[in-house]
Amino acid sequence: MATIRVKQVRSAINRSKTQKRTLEALGFKKLHQVIEHEATPSILGMIASVSHLLEVQK
After folding, report:
1. How far does CA 25 lie from the centroid of its chain?
2. Which of 4, 20, 37, 42 is the most exposed place for a label (fewest CB within 10 A)?
3. Measured distance CA(12)–CA(21) in Å, rounded
């Protein structure tokens, strides 16, 4: 599978608990952190659910 690079560009402050947990599950700890993941359907679904907080890089 292809890898996908994801960067957190917006804060999780004042977001719902599920959105905060999704960011933690993706591995984000800080703002502007870049993380690489395999492009599996589960990862893509998590990215889609918090896409307003993230920036996807190829």
Report:
1. 8
2. 42
3. 10
- Euclidean distance between CA atoms 53 and 48, whole angstroms: 10
- The encoded tokens of residue 55 equal 């920036």
56 strand-pairing partners: 6
Q: How far apart, in whole angstroms, are the C-alpha atoms of residue 27 and residue 7?
A: 11
Mean pLDDT, the chain cut into blocks of 10 residues (58 residues total): 95 97 97 96 97 94
Q: How many CB atoms lie within 10 A of CB 31?
A: 13
CB 36 within 8 A of CB 4: yes
